[in-house]
Design brief:
The protein has about 270 residues and is of the alpha/beta class. Helices cover about 45% and strands about 10% of the residues.
Length: about 270
Amino acid sequence: MPSAYINLSLNANKFLQPQWPDSSHRNQISHVPSHQEKERTLQPLRLQGFLDRLTYFEEWGIGGTWLQPGIMPVDYKAAHKRVYALTKKRPDSIWGYTVLPPYWETSQYESFIKWTVEELGFKVLKLQPYAFCTSPLTPQSQKVFETAVKLNIPVIIHTGNGMPCALPSLAIPVAKAYPELNIVLAHSGAGIYGAEALIAAQQCPNITLEPSLTTVMDIPSFIRKLGAEPVMFGTDIPLNASAELGKYKALHLTEEPYAWVHEGTARRVFRL
């Protein structure tokens, strides 16, 4: 089995955000540590804990993963730095991508994304419609695509849960307006709107489908009607690895489409 490169849409905040006693425990400690003290104390433990979880991927022959920070952290800069720390520990198998609310002021938004790309080495930008309650077609969302074009990086758009903002068809006008932009539809409609995701990819050659959380019935339709090159393997979270791999194993793909789905497509889209 070739190594697979995963679009891992994981809320890293859950694993990397420092955990500390809540107010009910305050009487039991004599010193309430500052945020900086918490970071210095717990971040190495959190990072190692997450690296330990990634051994689950290795058990299944998965050679690399894309990692995002928490969608709505207290401190966006600190959250992206935590992901960066993981990429530094495993530069050949962990890559970071940026998630930021599109309703930030344009210059502030562009400056932050540029920092993650040029200073942290992140290679992808993500729009999370359901978390930020914004459609890909809103004026706020346009800065996401315009910034990605300026920096020559692809965009991942979450689709599926979070309707009506997360409908796959909403990516069609975007893909046509920015034909030079590579767009990945995370979850490909998540089993609810798989047919709609397929139509989007059929109409727009710059759209790639990542079918984690979709049904095993949708995936062969994607490959049969699009070919394997626009389809990208993903898991969403580490514990889904065996289930997502099982979907493709059940299809009995020949070597060439298997290689595209599990590695080639990600290398093409993310320029690995």
